[in-house]
């Protein structure tokens, strides 16, 4: 399978715990994005990387959230001290940077439930 | 970011064409029009994009108004597998922002 892979598919945690999600992009892609989606809403941008550099973060991104892409390949998204409002689907996407024809390829997401 | 407006939902019959509209009256000259769709329990997938001319690919066609203030995604023969939420998104050519801004999209239902 050469698509975007996310792990785990589902995560249930208690409020106050830390969680970490992993994303493995398509191998030749240099850009990697994180989005969050709640029921009935479109995906909401969180942050993106070009290679290992984090180029943009949403203003809505709490300081409890941190993302890394240490070698420009896989990425991790950590949420510290989870809150019930963090319950959502966390989507990862990757792409080849292209000024006109960039297409994002999404994974199937990690569904987080905070109890 | 330029905004788009789409109907919340649409219905279609199987094997009939579907025209999904999108209004983007504040589009700028450097904005590309992108369409993505999201099937149930999956991440979004790219459908098509264009700038000024109509575009065709194996999934769909994109018809862009001459003034570029609206566009229509055309599925030539809807199948049950086309039931999804369709997102119309504007993306600035070469812009500093790397991300796509998704709205709520149009939920397409396909009846057998």
Explain what the structure shows.
The complex is a heterodimer of chains A (115) and B (112). Chain A has 115 residues and is mostly beta strands. Chain A has no helices and eleven strands. In chain A, strands 2, 4, 5, 6, 9, 10 and 11 form a seven-stranded mixed sheet that branches. In chain A, strand 4 and strand 5 (44-50) form a beta hairpin. Chain A starts with a strand and ends with a strand. Chain B is mainly beta. Helix content of chain B is 0%, strand content 46%. Chain B has a five-stranded mixed sheet, with no helix packed on it. Chain B is globular and about 40 Å long. The termini of chain B are far apart. The model of chain B has no long low-confidence stretch (mean pLDDT 92). The interface between A and B is medium-sized, with 28 and 24 residues.
Short description:
The complex is a heterodimer of chains A (115) and B (112). Chain A has 115 residues and is an all-beta fold. In chain A, 0% of the residues lie in helices and 49% in strands.
Write the layout of secondary structure elements.
The complex is a heterodimer of chains A (115) and B (112).
Chain A: E1 5-7, E2 10-13, E3 19-24, E4 31-37, E5 44-50, E6 53-57, E7 65-68, E8 75-79, E9 88-95, E10 105-106, E11 110-114
Parallel strand pairs in A: 2-11
Antiparallel strand pairs in A: 1-3, 3-8, 4-5, 4-9, 5-6, 7-8, 9-10, 9-11
Chain B: E1 9-13, E2 18-23, E3 31-38, E4 45-50, E5 55-56, E6 61-64, E7 70-75, E8 84-92, E9 106-111
Parallel strand pairs in B: 1-9
Antiparallel strand pairs in B: 2-7, 3-4, 3-8, 5-6, 6-7, 8-9
Which features would summarize this protein structure in a list?
heterodimer; A: 115 residues; mainly beta; 7-stranded mixed sheet; 11 strands; globular; B: 112 residues; 4-stranded antiparallel sheet; 0% helix; 46% strand
Radius of gyration of chain A: 14 Å
Secondary-structure element order of chain A, as H and E? EEEEEEEEEEE
Q: What is the CA–CA distance across the termini of chain A?
A: 33 Å
Structure class of chain B: mainly beta
Fraction of helical residues of chain A: under 10%
Low-confidence stretches of chain A: none
Number of helices of chain B: 0
Question: Average pLDDT across residues of chain A?
Answer: 93
The main sheet of chain B comes to: 5 strands, mixed
Please give the count of helices of chain A. Answer: 0
Main sheet characteristics of chain A: 7 strands, mixed
Average pLDDT score of chain B: 92
Radius of gyration of chain B: 13 Å
């Amino acid at each position: 399978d050469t698509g975007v892979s996310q792990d785990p598919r589902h995560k249930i945690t208690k409020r106050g715990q830390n969680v970490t999600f992993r994303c493995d992009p398509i191998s030749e892609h240099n850009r990697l994005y994180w989005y969050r989606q709640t029921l009935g809403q479109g995906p909401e941008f969180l942050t993106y990387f070009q290679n290992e550099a984090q180029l943009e973060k949403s203003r809505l991104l709490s300081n409890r959230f941190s993302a890394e892409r240490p070698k420009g390949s896989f990425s991790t998204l950590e949420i510290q001290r989870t809150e019930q409002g963090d319950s959502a689907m966390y989507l990862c996407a990757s792409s080849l940077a292209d000024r006109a024809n960039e297409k994002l390829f999404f994974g199937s997401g990690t569904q987080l439930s905070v109890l | 970011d330029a905004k788009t407006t789409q109907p919340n939902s649409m219905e279609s019959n199987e094997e009939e064409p579907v025209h999904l509209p999108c209004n983007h009256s504040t589009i700028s000259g450097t904005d590309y029009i992108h369409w993505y769709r999201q099937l149930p329990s999956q991440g979004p997938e790219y459908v098509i994009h264009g700038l000024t001319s109509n575009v065709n690919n194996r999934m769909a066609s994109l018809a862009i108004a001459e003034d570029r203030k609206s566009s229509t995604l055309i599925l030539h023969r809807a199948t049950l597998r086309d039931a999804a939420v369709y997102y119309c998104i504007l993306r600035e050519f070469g812009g500093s922002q790397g991300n796509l801004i998704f709205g709520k999209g149009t939920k397409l239902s396909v009846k057998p």
